[in-house]
Every structure is written in C-alpha cells, then in structure tokens.
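Quick start: read one record
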Amino acid sequence: IPLLERIPETGERIDYGALSEFLENEVRSLQTEQYRIHIIGFAKLVGDMIDGIQMVLVFFAMSALIATLIIYIYTRDARSTLLLVGAAVLGVVWLLGMLRLFGYVLNPYSVLVPFLVLLSLLMGGLAGLTALLTNAFAFAVMLLIDIPAIRDLAITTSIGVVILIFTKLILIPVALSYIGVGEKAAKRSLQTGSADGSINPAAIL
C-alpha cells in the first residue's frame, strides 16, 4: 500500500525505523515453514537502510581515509591534506544539519549525497567546479519529476552543491591563506606549474 510521508493527525513524519521493526516483529513473525513472507516497498527499504546505517558510516570513513592518503601522496603536505579533508567533512556535517533544519531526511535514493559532497570537495581546480555545476543543473532538472522521493533527492543534492561551492570557493582559499602550505608542497606545485606553463595559486599561499 502507498504510505503518506506524514501522519495526517499530527503532521509528523513516519518513523520508518519503528515501522520496519513493527513489520519484522508483527508480520514476518507469522512466517512458517510452509508460507514465507516477503515485505517490499519504499518504507521497508528505508527501515533496512536505517538498520544498516553503521555499515554506511564505515564505508564513508573508508572513503575519507582513502581520499586522505591519495591527497597526501600527491601534495606531500600534511597541513593542506588535513585542511582539505576537514573542510570536506565539515561540508557533509553542514549538509546533514541543513537537511534537518529544513525538515528533510536521507532516504535510499539520497543516502549517497554525502559521499558526493565529500568526493567533489576533494576534487581540485576547474575540474571540481565543473563537476559541481554539472551536478547542480542535472539535479535541478529532476525537480520537474512529480515523484516525491526523486524531488527530495534533487533538493538534497542542490543543498549539497551550494555548500560545496561555498566551501571550495571561499572557505578553503581563506583557510589556506592563514595556514599556508609546506615548503615541499610549494616547490612541487611550482615545478608542476612550470611543466605545463601555469602556476598553481596554492603555491603562492
């Protein structure tokens, strides 16, 4: 059966975790050796996602760790690496906080948005900004689809893109201007810039 997103009497959102637990305890418990019960649908999917949220957090931590190692190998500067990864994680925290503030929740379709925010922030330069703008236009078009879950995904991603642009274009450059980069990282950036005829602005900082 289709479910309303909010309880009509109170206006509160459905607690998918509690609903999933109820279905498991009160419905699936009726299963016998002769009859098997299969519970499907969006609500149960969300409930299963809530049950597995710890595994999602593990994958998120692994993604952040791998990205940190790759950035450090490339820059050879601990300060720049920690700043970039810290800003990316901060952007994810802002995203989750703003979703809570605006009354939105992560669902199976939008649970990957924090990963998108994290990885897009760790992409550098023009390529990263181009990816952000492309994602913004793509998900803005999805707002035209008259499906609540898809619209929530589009809104969630749009909020994430706004946070990404602010963090990448304002927060990270300002923070770098204060803490600077290591001598090895600056020399490496200058050498890389000299090789292709350009200079990385990070080297000046």
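Residues 194-205 have pLDDT under 50 and may be disordered.
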